[in-house]
Design brief:
alpha/beta; Uracil-DNA Glycosylase, subunit E; binds iron/sulfur cluster; 4 iron, 4 sulfur cluster binding; iron; Type-4 uracil-DNA glycosylase; 10 helices; five-stranded mixed beta sheet
């Protein structure tokens, strides 16, 4: 896909994604996306996402953006945050092999900066189509950026976590990002909340 004008980029991504008939078609075209010039110039891989071999996940987890390890490997949540996510999913009875793992933004922002609003807007077309193709009935948004994508810009994570929210017919849960759980340590409140929220999600399935 050639780089369009910035104000047309989001619409072009959305149209391209909507035309993808299945996951592998979407992944193939997304891997050559250059809608965000800065990210396209600095990334190693477009991190499209992990899906179960069945193509039908029990749960879809959505984080913010790839980090360094994800950019190197082309897979989401494979660094320290990914190891903790896998552990807590397992403890909740949700093996990662049965879970789809996606990000709001598919390319690593330089220096792990927060994705800019236009980047989120452009990449949203991929994510919306991914959620449709996966038949995602239950979604867990990890961290504030992801929570805001689903629940709106005024979202306060501490006020909305711990219960499902109906978003376009999906049950959307929001909770802390594993990186926050790592930052506050194994006995910190974010890790306990993340573990409790994943158990609550598992109990709802
Ligand atoms: S972040 Fe998303 S929209 Fe931007 S270049 Fe990467 S895949 Fe395309």
């Amino acid at each position: 896909m050639a780089a369009p004008r910035p104000d047309a980029a989001a619409a072009e991504v959305a149209a391209t994604a909507a035309a993808a008939p299945d996951w592998s078609s979407l992944a193939e075209v997304a891997r050559s996306c250059v809608a965000c010039p800065e990210l396209a110039a600095t990334r190693q891989h477009v991190v499209v996402g992990d899906v179960p071999v069945t193509g039908r996940p029990r749960l879809v987890v959505v984080g913010e953006a790839p980090g360094a390890t994800e950019d190197e490997t082309g897979r989401p949540f494979v660094g320290r945050s990914g190891a903790l996510l896998d552990l807590l999913l397992d403890e909740a009875g949700l093996p990662r092999a049965e879970v789809a793992v996606l990000n709001i933004v598919k390319c690593r922002p330089p220096g792990n900066r927060t994705p800019k609003a236009p980047e989120v807007a452009r990449c949203s077309g991929w994510l919306r189509r991914q959620l449709d193709l996966l038949g995602a009935d239950v979604v867990v948004a990890l961290g504030l950026s992801s929570a805001k994508w689903f629940l709106g810009p005024r979202t306060v994570l501490g006020q909305v976590r711990g219960r499902a929210h109906d978003v376009d017919g999906r049950a959307v849960w929001v909770t802390y990002h594993p990186s926050a759980a790592i930052r506050f340590g194994p006995n910190g409140a974010p890790r306990a909340a993340l573990a409790a929220d994943l158990r609550a999600v598992a109990g709802s399935l």
